Amino acid sequence: MHLSKTSKIMASKKPENMTFEATIEELDSIVEDLENGDLALDEALKKFERGISLARSGQTKLNDAEQRVSILLQNDDNAPLSEFNSQPE
Questions:
Q1: Which of 17, 21, 22, 35 is nearest to 7 (CA)?
Q2: Could you report the per-residue pLDDT of 2-19, keeping only the tens digit for each?
Q3: Are the C-beta atoms of 7 and 27 separated by less than 8 Å?
Q4: Backbone angles phi, psi at 58, to 5 degrees
């Protein structure tokens, strides 16, 4: 297994506290490790769980960004302003 120093640091962070870029970088590393097939079952399952968590967090970040862009691109200058809430209700 080949984890760089940054991968070990990233693995300790909660996905929701990571930048989108860091999330994708770690997810890419996990996919590579899983595709190599050299991991024990327990380690592969842990990485898979981490990957799912990262993928969900990344998707949330993308959805939030898409919503913000959509708000910014609205053509209706008379639309009332509303506070952006990135947390699902």
A1: 22
A2: 444 444 444 468 988 999
A3: no
A4: -60, -40
Instruction: Please give the Cα distance from 62 to 77 (Å, whole number).
Output: 25
Burial call 12-25: b when 16+ CB within 10 Å, e when fewer: eeebeebeeebbeb
* Three-class DSSP category at 86: coil
Cβ proximity of 33 and 39 under 8 Å: yes
50-68 residue pLDDT tens = 999 999 999 999 999 999 9
Residue 34 identity: L
